[in-house]
DNA sequence: TCTTTTACTTTGAATTTCAAAGTACTTTTA
DNA sequence: TAAAAGTACTTTGAAATTCAAAGTAAAAGA
């Protein structure tokens, strides 16, 4: 390892993305509304953060209809879970000095 | 508490600022060169992150000369230490689900 | 003396963040 | 049953942030 923040993942730097991942590693799925409420994010804001995590292939999106209403459901991918685990370990290590 | 990321401090979102604070809570002082090497940051990049933390009054800067060379030394303020502690606790809580 | 290195600071282009406005419905109310 | 309000997002673009290249100024080396 070259320096002390090498294993800290840039993709999880932001608190909203950190929050999304924390939710998605303990819950198999979370929909837009649930994430929005848990994180206190605005719609547009949440959409761009989930999109950023999608782009990295850390989260997967599934669109469907529940009854007649659209529903967007997010889940963490295997890649995302692994990357997040590594990130959390790096943070823990960093914070222990 | 309104939502799960409320106590996560925006000022420490970035990995370089998280790294600066981790270094400064365990070391009474760190100079520019030391931070740069430990974090693997470029000069300009490090300067702007320390400036951001200064603006929040989380770190204090002291400029002096060591021999005939300029030396910039950073330390964490009381406010910074307290804010960081709170942040770390919030992260730990978040990551435990 | 001239070149290189050290220790930062300044600059501004590129990227990211954010909320307001927009879209396309569904549901409620009168 | 027509209008108003709500739901569930998406789009947009201005504002803020990030970043490294270039700049500055003095010291060290050749």
UniProtKB/TrEMBL annotation, chains A, B:
Q: Where is the Winged helix DNA-binding domain?
A: 16-95
Q: Which InterPro entries has this protein been placed in?
A: WH-like_DNA-bd_sf, WH_DNA-bd_dom, WH_DNA-bd_sf
One Pfam family from the record: HTH_34
Listed Gene3D superfamilies? Winged helix-like DNA-binding domain superfamily/Winged helix DNA-binding domain
Classification via SUPFAM superfamilies: Winged helix' DNA-binding domain
Q: What is this protein called?
A: Transcriptional regulator
Species whose genome carries this gene? Aquimarina aggregata
């Amino acid at each position: 390892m070259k320096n002390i923040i090498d294993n800290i993942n840039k993709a999880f730097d932001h608190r909203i993305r950190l929050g999304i991942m924390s939710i998605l590693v303990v819950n198999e799925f979370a929909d837009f509304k649930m994430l929005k409420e848990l994180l206190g994010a605005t719609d547009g804001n949440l959409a761009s953060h989930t999109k950023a995590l999608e782009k990295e292939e850390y989260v997967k999106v599934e669109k469907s209809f529940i009854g007649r209403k659209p529903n967007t459901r997010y889940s963490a991918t295997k890649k995302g879970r692994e990357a997040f685990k590594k990130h959390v370990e790096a943070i823990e290590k960093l914070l222990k000095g």
